[in-house]
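Today's session is about reading a structure prediction critically. Students often jump straight to the picture, but the first step is always the sequence itself: look for stretches that repeat, for charged clusters, for runs of hydrophobic residues. Only then move on to the predicted structure, which in these notes is written as discrete structure tokens rather than atom positions. Here is the chain we will use throughout the hour.
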Amino acid sequence: MNRKLAYFILPVVIVFTFFVGFETSNLLNKSTVENTARNKNTSSINNRGVDMDLFWEVWDLISQKYIKENAVIPKNMVYGAIKGMAASLEDPYTVFMDPVETKDFELNLNGDLEGIGAELTIQNQALTIVSVLRDTPAEKAGLRPNDIIFKIDDEITSDMTLPSAIQKIRGKAGTIVKLTILRKGDPKPFDVSIKRANIQIASVSYNELGNGIHYIVLNHFSDKTSDELNEVIQKILLKDPKGIILDLRSNGGGYLDIAVDILSDFIKGKKTVVYIHKRGAENEPMQTDGSSRLADIPAVVLINGGSASASEIVAGAFQDLNRGILIGERSFGKGSVQEYEKFKDGSSLRITIAKWLTPNKKDIDEVGIKPDIEVKLTEDDYKNKRDPQLDEAVKYLKSVIKG
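Below is the predicted structure for this chain, in token form.
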């Protein structure tokens, strides 16, 4: 993964200067870890008003006295310390991941994994479903955005980190995981047993709905999305399109530059579609490239509570630039930017480095984007697999096409 500036809906991370640059071989050897770190970093950290003697005192006590000697693994102690520092920021999007967690994260971002097909975050100290991917075990089991996962296989989740919770939910295809769910409006928690599956998620799917209306579903913003969408656009342009529905529901986000690429085809000319605000810096505008292949075709964007991050960048630009209307439900509300760094031993860090703002410089973090036409799905809609949000989008475009 060579993209550094990215939007993720899953948590992120800050690395502690003290551990940066350690190679795997260093982590495996206790004396090397101690001597190198103490000699190299103590003075610089002390200059910041931090006394590292306490850290090493605890390290030594654990190493010398903990009853289960074989459980004292220097590498794991280092990883645990870094994770603790990330957690101290109380930012669910700043996360350190060990090599196993990093591999899982990259598989998830590229749409190839074994699990249930739901994107998660920690919200208000609760393990929360952000989005449920289409045609996955999670969707078939009836899970929804904003459901809280109270237990995983009878283990309470309140003390779990996000990566550890994700690891517990994932597993070999064909095996079962039991989730205890808390849902707004339901008086009691309920259990759902879900069979894990191999999940390969196409980032783009496409269908014709008749009357010249074309329906594009974006599931996430990955490395593959621009190429896949380009193929769809080429097909659409051969068919005299009258209207386009861009479905961003339950799309938890992905890469920033992919969101801007997609907007380049929908927005006329070179326009600022998002601002990036870093610490101590001016707002940095990001512009479309002017390709504008779909810019003159009436468009509707569908959003819901699972539309987050890069999805909200696209939706916010459509709304602020009056490019098309938004239909559905208020989006998730993730207005922060994370940078992804991968280290030599396979571990990684996602760290919040900025906020992003819409073209009108609105901050949507923890607020979300309100659609122009609100259409909520009812319990009856879920049970009968009705989609009044899509129906409303088709109805709106037909009225525009007729003039």
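Discussion point for the tutorial: Confidence is low (pLDDT under 50) at residues 1-36.
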